[in-house]
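Page 37, top half.
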Amino acid sequence: MDQKTIFKRVANYKELHAYQKAEILVLLTDVFCKRFLPLYGDRRVDQMNMAARCGKQNIVEGCEDGQTSTEMEVKLVNVGRSSFQELREDYEDYLKRNGLQIWDKNHPRFDKMILFCRNNNHWDAYKSLSETLSAEEFCNMALTLCHITDKMICGYLNHLEKTFKEEGGIKERMHAVRTGYRQEQDARLKALEAENAALKRRIAELERALKNKG
């Protein structure tokens, strides 16, 4: 732990793959609702867009608050995870209600979809697809992203737990900073006392030398 600061080093949320996937899910969900849900009168439009946005925003807020509170960071990131689980349920419900297939590992395109979603973290790779995929293809791509994002968030939460065990929270960091400051001051005082004692001895030696000469 760095004893010179009480603030924890936090991740740049924009560099987190979980955040990048979350951003894609926000944009995909907006396109999905416009393409496959009624323009007016369907509550799922607001629910799905809100779930996607809340998932992303809680990652952002968690990382920002994490500088002073690991507890708050964990809570917010976990809320984000719950929002994506809610979004996943909405996509699954759409497939079931419309008699469409949820792809499992035995589906011929399952592995290819996972590989594509895992390797692409930016909207440019999805933008054109989002306008051409069928409802079944679209939902399964979104579901794949939800699953991958969930695993990434779980990995990040495990990282936060490990960091907390090693470094503690802000109270522990404040104590460490204060303790480190006191130790520095004590060491400086001892050095000054030793220097003062050495000067006194030197003065005494010089006084004796002058007295002997006289």
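Page 37, bottom half:
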Amino acid sequence: MNATVSTAIFAAFMVLTVVLGLLAVRGRGAGTSRAGLTEWSVGGRSLGTVFIWVLMAGESYTSFSYLGAAGWGYNFGAPVLYVLAYMSCGYAIGYVVGPMLWAYARRHGLVGITDIVAHRYRRPWLGAAVAVLATVCLLPYIQLQIAGMGVVVSTISYGTISLNWAYFIGFAVTTGFVVVSGLRGSAWVSVLKDILVIVTLGFLAVYVPLHYFGGYGPFLDRIVAEKPQWLTFPGHASGGLGQSWFISTTLINSLTVVIFPTTVAGYLGARNADVLRRNAMYLPFYNVLLFVPMLLGLAALFVVPGLTGAGSNLALFKLVVDSLPAWAVGVIGVAAALSSIVPMAVFMLVIGTMWGRSVLGAVPRLASRQKLWSQLVVVVAGALALALTYTAPNTLVRLSLISYEGMAQLVPMLLLGLVWRRLTIYAAVSGLVAGFTLVCVLVFGGHDPVWGVNAGIVGLAVNVLVTLAVTWLGPRERVDDRPDAEVLALEDEFRRAEAAASGTR
């Protein structure tokens, strides 16, 4: 009976998710190929404050919020707070960077980071190369969301839905609406997801401490008395995730998140720059909710002790299934499932846009059908992640180790290149190659953290040094290869953004 009730609730919400995604584009024509791609990939650059807020919050609240955050709290304790730290710092940086990227992309009709890079350095092949690099870093996230949803659905159905079927449901629902409705559909579904996330996490924040411990006072007293090592760095059995790791990880992730392809897609979908500035101020309030799964992971230490390995990621759901009626389990499961579907949709959308625009769309014979190629790539990328989830899950999990650290190496090429006219393509590419290679060597060689510091920040430091050295000492670009007057105007745009930020303060 429990399985029937919770599964029925889950099924009803999955149907509602697809319907919402399809309704999002009702009455919006495709237009020309280029206009159609803009509408599909960045919502026609017309999304207001609410839609941008829920969309970008949706990228932050993934299945990690219900599984990984609780699992980290259960296993390690304090080090999991790095998530709150880097997101909040990233929003502050995005207050300046978001409007700058939005203005540049809008002026030149660009729809993603590959477009921006290709336009800035006047090299279409560079946009294609960045698309390949970004795809390598993003595919693991699709696989992780598929796997996360599979675990959630299998758990809330009390085992009646197998992991394999749950994986497929996640892929099918996401592909079903994102191919048709693009970024706008993801924003509409994000509204439903965020309502459920706020309600369910708010409820659990009150219910679990009262039900199992009699309130927050006894709960926190017990943690201090019995698990004090979970409350200090480097946490419990975390392998050395101490203060240096926390600071360096916060720094590298806060820089990376503002140029992450999915974040940039959110920036470019905004109606105007003020929407992004308001969004940067409002998003940190949403971060408060992330304390809930972290605390519930600590609560699970006493309620369901002995969870090991991947089982610790189910710490929160063990509490839920153990004590709540089936209908409540179903609703909480839907919130967690949508926390997989929304970011997965944006990841797939971004990969499709990059390839449809910068790789396949760069071929003259294919350029007239960029939106179609982008939609096809969405299906291929999702299907590839799904197939690897079934057959070789460790392949993408292994790649996920370098996802954030690898994407961080695009920061100098993208941000420094937009505000510093002297940066040459030779310097940008040299820095990227040096930094990304070092990150791969350190991470795959088992040296992350290195000397207690995140390997990504070490790679980024080398990246910047190489970039500066080649700019000053390396070959100069030909006159016709230099950024034109419109590109150089980004320096003025950057100064105006800084002035706006100072005025707000």
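Margin note: The radius of gyration is 22 Å.
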